[in-house]
Design a protein that fits this description.
Strand order of the largest sheet of chain A: 1-2-5-4-3-7
Distance between the termini of chain B: 13 Å
Largest sheet of chain B: 8 strands, mixed
Number of domains of chain A: 1
CATH class of the domain at 79-234 and 308-367 in chain B: Alpha Beta
Strand content of chain A: 25-35%
Strand order of the largest sheet of chain B: 4-3-2-7-8-12-11-10
Number of helices of chain B: 15
Order of helices and strands of chain A: EEEEHHEEEHHHHH
Number of strands of chain B: 12
Helix content of chain B: 40-55%
Structural class of chain B: alpha+beta
Order of helices and strands of chain B: HHHEEEEHEEHEHEHHHEEHEEHHHHH
CATH architecture of the domain at 79-234 and 308-367 in chain B: 2-Layer Sandwich
Radius of gyration of chain A: 18 Å
Number of strands of chain A: 7
Distance between the termini of chain A: 16 Å
Oligomer: heterodimer
Shape of chain B: globular
Chain lengths: 205, 403
């Protein structure tokens, strides 16, 4: 999977802001409508000099106001873009947001693949991780244990498989990384063969 | 139980059955009105009779034709629509804080090659004496009045126009624009005898009309039309005009000729019982507008000057709307065309109601919960400054609702 070039520099890699946070995860609202990070991609927030790393899941675009539901507007429009061209207010009335599962953090210039001592702060900026950061963080696969235990609306098999595919694409040898990840999953899911099989099928090993 | 609907249901049924009985009578009146609308006879003589008639009702003046109808011109490729709307929290006389709040929603939407939008709400707190009390200028007479109740509503309307003029002032020249407000351009609230003249000066001359004129002046660099939109209007200005057309007396004079006649017995009652909305629903096709008429409202005729209020009816598809425009829009074909085509476009995008007005309303609206939170916040700051926060006994009793 290709990493978007403009995510590489600091300013353009800032995509969202935390709107709800707990130790194990957080919700974030994107600055640009529909500019959602891909499922299973790696993001980070700052916490003083340290960083909190997370994996994205459960993205959605919906009305900013709970009482106002979007309605169909494109019956007489030629393209989907025309719907937004004819209704320029929509960009101000909708929001794109996503959930993130915390998979580790950095402290003293070192990555730790377990939960940080504190949750991210509300209104923390959310950055997309660079491929170098992703490769560095995923030298240890212990974060898969946290991901496997995460409680999200999404089936954990889908989330884990998407994450491994995303991180694998950042490695020079994706197949080698995926094989290592598969072995780690075999340790995690020793008593749940069905779940392990479902994930492996999604990794095309 | 606070309201026993079972006990009022019988009265509601009687009301509905009475209206149903009036159905055939209303259909006859509508047919009579339509036939006079299509065939009013000599228009010049009708205009003369209108000018000399003495009636107790508001009669539309005909500047052009009576029964012309117009299809919409195509909308410009690039254009902007502006709209403002307002809400208010009135002074709560049971609360120790004497203050009120006006919340203005502003919307600016650019359509065409570079679409974009700007939506904002601006709350304005009125709490200082000079903000809450209107006084006559030195040397003039009149008692001072407090801005609350209906006068707060009038102040809110003036603020809506102030924000609309500010939005219009920020427009980049180059594109035609339409500035929209909800409701009437005619400040009916100021026609009450209870309103002192100096208040009319402040709210109308130095308020609404000043801002409308500011928008008019922008036309030196690019076309900017202004209109107010009345959904589901109940006005009868044109029907009243047709009453004069059917009146058998050369110079209609209600007091002289029909003072003793009961309702239903006067000759003009043949077209009574329907309103302009029903008339134009029957005679306009979708997207058509009527010709323009001039409102004969006294305040418009005597004080609005070059902003004299004209109006036309428009079949948007879902309903007949009354669109009120100042004279400088009515007399300039380009501005009239923008008003017609862009209001239709706005209604199409807004599923029957101009989308800019509906978004301005959404930005402005103050819900019951907002009102409660506003007073909680006031209480919190009052407590912080060790001010009295105790409400009236009546208000406390209503909140607690003990048995």
């Amino acid at each position: 999977m290709a990493i978007r070039g403009d995510y590489m520099n600091e300013a353009s890699s800032r995509i969202a802001e935390v709107t709800q946070a707990s130790t194990a995860g957080f919700f974030a609202q994107c600055y640009e409508l529909f500019d959602l990070p891909p499922l299973g991609s790696m993001i980070k927030c700052r916490d003083g000099g340290n960083e909190i790393m997370a994996i994205t899941c459960n993205a959605r675009t919906s009305s900013l106001e709970p009482g106002r539901r979007p309605i169909a507007r494109g019956k007489n429009e030629l393209t989907e873009e025309d719907v937004f061209r004819s209704n320029p207010q929509l960009e101000q009335l909708l929001k794109s947001e996503f959930e993130a599962v915390v998979i580790g953090h950095s402290a003293n210039n070192q990555y730790h693949h377990y939960l940080p001592p504190r949750p991210v702060k509300l209104h923390s900026f959310v950055y997309v991780c660079s491929p170098d950061e992703i490769v560095e963080f995923s030298r240890s696969l212990e974060f898969l244990t946290l991901l496997a235990g995460a409680r999200t609306e999404l089936p954990s098999e889908e989330l884990i498989a998407a994450c491994i595919r995303f991180i694998g694409a950042c490695h020079v040898e994706p197949a080698a990384f995926t094989t290592l990840a598969g072995k780690k999953l075999a340790q995690i899911f020793t008593d749940d063969y069905q779940k392990l099989r479902t994930i492996l099928l999604r990794l095309k090993l | 139980m606070s309201l026993d609907l079972n006990r009022v249901a019988g009265s509601i049924a009687s009301m509905a059955s009475e209206l149903a009985l009036q159905g055939s009578r209303r259909a006859e009146a509508l047919n009579a009105a339509l036939s006079k609308y299509y065939d009013p006879g000599d228009l010049a003589s009708l205009k003369q009779r209108l000018a000399r008639a003495k009636t107790s009702w508001l009669v539309a003046e005909i500047p052009g034709s009576l029964n012309s109808r117009f299809d919409p011109p195509p909308p410009p490729a690039d254009y902007r629509v502006l709209a403002t709307d307002g809400s208010q929290i009135d002074i709560d006389r049971h609360h120790p804080a004497r203050c009120c709040l006006i919340n203005i929603g502003s919307v600016s939407m650019q359509y065409g090659q570079n679409p974009g939008s700007f939506l904002e709400s601006e709350p304005i707190l009125l709490s200082k004496t000079d903000e809450l009390i209107l006084k006559p200028e030195q040397g003039t007479t009149g008692r001072e009045v407090s801005i609350e109740g209906s006068l707060l509503g009038i102040k809110r309307t003036a603020e809506e126009f102030r924000f609309l003029a500010a939005l219009a002032g920020r427009l980049q020249p180059g594109f035609p624009a339409l500035a929209l407000v909800d409701g009437s351009l005619i400040m009916w609230g100021l026609t009450s005898k209870d309103i002192p003249d100096f208040v009319v000066d402040i709210m109308l001359d130095k308020g609404v009309l000043k801002y409308i004129t500011q928008i008019e002046k922008l036309n030196s660099s690019h076309p900017v039309a202004l209109a107010s939109y009345i959904s589901f209007p109940r006005s009868t200005d044109v029907i009243n005009l047709l009453r004069i057309a059917v009146c058998p007396y050369q110079i209609p004079d209600c007091d002289r000729f029909c003072a003793g006649a009961a309702n239903g017995e006067r000759p003009c009652d043949a077209v009574d019982g329907v309103n302009d909305r029903e008339l134009f629903w029957a005679c306009l096709t979708e997207q058509q507008r009527s010709d323009v008429f001039i409102s004969q409202s006294r305040i418009s005729k005597t004080r609005y000057g070059c902003n004299l209020v004209y109006f036309f009816y428009l079949k948007t598809g879902n309903e007949i709307a009354r669109v009120e425009i100042p004279e400088w829009v009515a007399l300039k074909p380009e501005l009239l065309a923008i008003t017609h085509s862009l209001i239709l476009e706005q209604c199409r995008k807004g599923h029957g109601y101009p989308v800019a007005l509906s978004e301005a309303h959404e930005m402005a609206v103050v819900s019951g919960a907002d009102r409660q939170n506003f007073f909680y916040l006031v209480d919190e700051y009052f407590t912080g400054y060790k001010l009295n926060t105790s409400a009236s006994a009546k208000s406390t009793s209503k909140k607690n609702r003990w048995i």
